[in-house]
Structures are given as structure tokens and as C-alpha cells.
Amino acid sequence: MLVVAVCPTGKYKGVGDPVINDEPNCENECHCTELQCVYINGTCIDGCGIGWKGDVCNERDCEVENGGCQHQCTEDKRDEWCSCDEGIDISPNDWKKCLDINECLGESDCHECINTIGSYTCRCDHGYELHPNGTSCGDVDECERGMYDVDRCHTCVNLIGGHTCLCNETFVLDKSNNNETCIGIAVVVLLLLAAAFAVVCFVKRRRKQEKNPKQSEVPTNTSFKISDVNVPDVEILEENEYEEIRDSSIEPLPSAAATKQTPDVTYYNTSGKHPTTLDNSTSDGNSA
Fold this sequence. Notes:
The protein is rod-shaped, with a radius of gyration of 56 Å. 15% of the residues lie in helices and 22% in strands. It has helices at 142-145, 185-211, 242-249, 256-259, and strands at residues 11-12, 19-20, 23-24, 28-29, 52-53, 59-60, 72-73, 82-83, 88-90, 98-100, 112-116, 119-123, 128-130, 137-139, 155-159, 162-166, 171-173, 182-184, 265-269, 275-279. By secondary structure, the chain is α+β, with helices and mostly antiparallel strands. The strands form 10 sheets. Strands 1-4 form a two-stranded antiparallel ribbon. A two-stranded antiparallel sheet has the order 2-3. Among the domains are: 1-61, no CATH class; 155-211, no CATH class.
């Protein structure tokens, strides 16, 4: 007679007596779908569970639903036969499931780490390139590869993440170009002089506007221009020259005699062909 359900789920009678030390002898494993196996021979009434096969359902079966594993199933293991792909760990809550490892949380040789499922990728700063392994950044030797301005960099010197130049005599490094090219000293001097001249002109113009604020208040909606007014430059005049300029700027009015107009005169030819004049200002019509 068979005795059923006297062992915990997944167990059945071992070798020897059915009861040892007043406890059921339940040394053997069985892996049924849901129900308990038969106590005597471990037979599963409802069949083997996923990942198991054999007469008593205690042999590994990776061919059915991958043995219940999310990634890899190993048939030669009795316990925890599931494993995970590289870069992924077994879940602490279920050894049949796998969890991704965030490699970016640890140390890496990437300038910008981007986590992916089971791995990660890198983005590198300017002057660096991605290593063939795809997980680290390495310096680019711009000098060896000719990745510099050959015409304006006299001697290329590689740096970590960039490069610089050694310049010939009468040349200096061009700081405006990240010290990666050379520029002639004469050009630098001209640029400095031009900048200084522009600053001086600007300062003088501001000072002149501050000393003559009324000149800058001329309405813009009129045709009047400051250049139309002959105003002497007060900065170059001495105090004793003001009176002379004032007198010379006032022109004398013409006299009354000068404003008297010559009367209109009409010329006639007499019978003797001698010209004579007639004052049109007279009203009696008598000739002279």
C-alpha cells in the first residue's frame, strides 16, 4: 500500500526505514508541477515541474522553457542551475532571474559613461578617442597623425588631450587659437597699436562729449547740423583770443550811402547818333 503526502512538497522516502527517530524518512527530492510526489517512489501525480524531468522529476531539463532560467540553464547543476550573461547578476530575490549591473556607478576610464543592458559605452572629450574595447578613452597624438596646422605650427608638440607648438624666432604662440598656431611679432604689435589707438579715440570722444553736453542735445528731426556752425574749439584757444574771435566773427553793417541804389538810366540815340541819357526817376519827361 502506498503512503501519500507524508513528506513536505518536493520530498519523498529515502533509503532505509520509512521512519527514523520518529520522523518520516524524506531524503529524496521530487519536483512536481504543484502536488506532492508519492511518498514511496517519488512519482509526481501532476507531472514534473519546469526545469525537471525523469521518473521522479529530479533530473535537470533545460530544453523546456530554458529550465525556468531567464538567461542560461546548466543541466549538470543540482542547485541554482541558472546563470546570467556577462555584465548581469543573479537577482538576490530569485536566482532564476537576472538584474543588470550599472557599470557607470563604479570607476571607469570614460569621460561620459552611458549604461546599457549588460554593458556600457563611453563618450570622449575633444582630443581623445574611444578605445577599440569601447569602454575607455585614449589620447589622440595630433602631431603623429598630422592633425594640426602645418603651415602655422612650426614644431608640433603633443599634449594629453591636445597639442601646442614651438615657434621660430620673431614668432609667438597665438593665444586666440588655443596656443596651437604661431603668429608673427610684427602682427601682434600692429594689433596692439590698433587696439590702443581705438581706445584713445574713444576716450577723447567721451571727454569731449562730457565737456560739451549741449552739442550732443541737437534735435535729430531737423536739418540743422553742428558742422554748419563755425564754433571755435575752446580746448586750443588761450583766454586772450576770445575777444579777437568775437570781434572778427561780427561783420560791420553796410552804410546808408552804400545801400543807395543808382537810378535806372535809359539810353536813346539822337538824330546825330550821339547817345544821351534819361533819368527814369523824373516824372516830367524832359530830356537833359
